[in-house]
């Protein structure tokens, strides 16, 4: 990893792939075909892109039962424990409808209503991501969403990974479809003969999934267009060098666009970590991916003092921030921009990814400056409630009419004044 001295131009914001013109055209054509042909288009694209010939798009009960025979008890125990932790955390996020009254008889309020339906996209094919299922499904369930649909691209044998099916079943998800890519997003947004449309789509995916989500936004809501993963480690001279290196590599192995950054005031620590990263990299199964990531987007930023280090962190606004200092709690209050903050040497980023209970769907690429992790609030909507009394309208009607006329809206003013006649 390259070591650099801090200057005002330091940034980990990347010019991320927003899709080529050709990719955009492909996505548009896929969405159009799904809207026109429904299920037939889904089976066509599944065979074309996933090399799977499907007789039925929907996962059947027998497939779920078979999946359980391929999962050992240790895995099942780990999944169930993680589900319990994640559910406990998200249950604390719930908000209630509220009302307030005034002496003049006015009543105002806010009504909280869960979305009717949500569609969860789970990447698949060559890998399985049970954590993505938990992080999307649980906040939706806690919010009270009645219909939760899961879609995921099948393997060439036409099946989903056993751990994906088991995780979904443990969560109580019964509506699962073996379809992925832009075609799955189109199906969720517009509906087909088999897949009724949903109100919101969440979950990560490749560039075609991201472009499709962007295309259908407005017809449905989406969570975010997430970029590659990133981590910033803020450390002082007492931090464990091996821990830092391991955590930087844990993000670098995601993909070549992932970003791993160490911010420290210690030149000695910086040089030691750079050497340790190379040492640990040699035995990493995904060495080539991690190495490419570190060469392109890995940095060790050396500052003059701790306050400058904190300034750097806030400028970077990272997805994940680890604070490995002597007294991390003294620093956390000064951090304004980060998706998730991990305090102390035992709070390694994978703890939050999989098990602690916090959501790992986080803002990336500097968007933590203005956005938040996926939460229960993302699966609810808020409605304002207004009940005005006669007394309140008499007292305030002329003011309302005045403001209406300031905007040139005479009918607005008259709608108020007609109620004030003979009062």
UniProtKB/TrEMBL annotation:
Its cofactor is Zn(2+). Signal peptide: none annotated. One of its GO terms (cellular component) is cytosol. Zn(2+) binds at residues 251, 254, 353, 412. One of its GO terms (biological process) is L-histidine biosynthetic process. Substrate binds at residues 229, 251, 254, 320, 353, 407, 412. PROSITE patterns: HISOL_DEHYDROGENASE. NAD(+) binds at residues 121, 183, 206. Pfam families: Histidinol_dh. Keywords: Amino-acid biosynthesis, Histidine biosynthesis, Metal-binding, NAD, Oxidoreductase, Zinc. Binds 1 zinc ion per subunit. GO terms for molecular function: histidinol dehydrogenase activity; NAD binding; zinc ion binding. The keyword Ubl conjugation does not apply. Belongs to the histidinol dehydrogenase family. This is Histidinol dehydrogenase. The gene is hisD.
């Amino acid at each position: 990893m390259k070591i650099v001295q801090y200057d005002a131009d330091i940034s980990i914001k990347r010019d991320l792939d927003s899709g080529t013109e050709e990719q955009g055209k492909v996505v548009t054509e896929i969405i159009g075909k799904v809207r026109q042909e429904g299920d037939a288009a889904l089976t066509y694209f599944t065979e074309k892109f996933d090399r799977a010939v499907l007789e039925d798009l929907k996962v059947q009960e027998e497939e779920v039962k078979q999946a359980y025979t391929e999962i050992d008890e240790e895995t099942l125990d780990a999944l169930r424990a993680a589900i319990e932790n994640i559910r406990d955390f998200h249950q604390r996020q719930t908000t209630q409808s509220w009302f307030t009254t005034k002496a003049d008889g006015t009543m105002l309020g806010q009504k909280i209503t869960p979305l009717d339906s949500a569609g969860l996209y789970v990447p698949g094919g060559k890998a399985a991501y049970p954590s993505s299922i938990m992080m999307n499904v649980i906040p939706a369930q806690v919010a009270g969403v009645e219909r939760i649909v899961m879609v995921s691209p099948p393997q060439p044998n036409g099946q989903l990974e056993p751990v994906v099916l088991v995780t979904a079943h443990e969560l109580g998800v019964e509506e699962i479809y073996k379809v992925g890519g832009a075609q799955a997003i189109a199906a969720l947004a517009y509906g087909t003969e088999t897949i009724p449309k949903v109100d919101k789509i969440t979950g990560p995916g490749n560039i075609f999934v991201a472009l499709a989500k962007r295309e259908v936004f407005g017809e449905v809501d989406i969570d975010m267009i997430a970029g590659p993963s990133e981590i910033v480690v803020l450390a002082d001279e007492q931090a464990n060098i091996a821990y830092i290196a391991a955590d930087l590599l844990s993000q670098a192995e995601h993909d070549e666009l992932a970003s791993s950054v160490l911010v420290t005031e210690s030149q000695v620590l910086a040089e030691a970590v750079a050497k340790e990263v190379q040492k640990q990299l040699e035995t990493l199964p995904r060495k080539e991916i991690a190495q490419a990531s570190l060469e392109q987007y890995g940095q060790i930023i050396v500052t003059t003092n701790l306050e400058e280090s904190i300034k750097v962190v806030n400028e970077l606004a990272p997805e994940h921030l680890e604070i490995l200092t002597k007294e991390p709690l003294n620093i956390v209050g000064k951090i304004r921009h980060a998706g998730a903050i991990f305090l102390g040497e035992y709070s390694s980023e994978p703890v939050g990814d999989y098990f602690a209970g916090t959501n790992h769907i986080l803002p990336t690429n500097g968007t933590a400056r203005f956005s938040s992790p996926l939460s229960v609030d993302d699966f609810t909507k808020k409605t304002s409630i207004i009940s005005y009394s006669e007394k309140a309208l008499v007292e305030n009607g002329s003011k309302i009419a005045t403001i209406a006329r300031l905007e040139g809206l005479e009918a607005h003013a008259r709608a108020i004044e007609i109620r004030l006649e003979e009062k």
